[in-house]
Amino acid sequence: MGTSIRVSDETKAKLDRLKRDDESFDELLGRLADDEEPVEVGSWDSETAACAREAVSRSRASFEP
């Protein structure tokens, strides 16, 4: 048994461009889902957070005239 999903014409056009010639839409969506990296949720320790803040500060300063 299958399931239908609605997508906009714009999304369908994007999927058409990603789809391989020998691939069904089910195979395309499965491939895209498998290619997705899992997101690891967590927080930084204080040292890592301080390093990140410093890097952002340096980056912002490099754009100032």
Topology:
Elements: H1 9-18, H2 25-35, H3 46-62
Measured distance between first and last alpha carbons = 62 Å
**Total beta strand runs:** 0
Helix and strand run: HHH
What's the number of helices?
A: 3
Q: Give the uncertain stretches in residue-range form.
A: none
Overall form: elongated
Q: Biggest β-sheet: count, sense, barrel?
A: none
List keywords for this structure.
mainly alpha, elongated, 3 helices, 65 residues
Summarize this structure briefly.
The chain is an all-alpha fold and 65 residues long.
Structure in words:
The protein is mainly alpha-helical. The radius of gyration is 21 Å and the shape is elongated. The protein has a domain at 8-37. Helix content is 58%, strand content 0%. The chain starts with 8 loop residues before the first helix and ends with a helix.
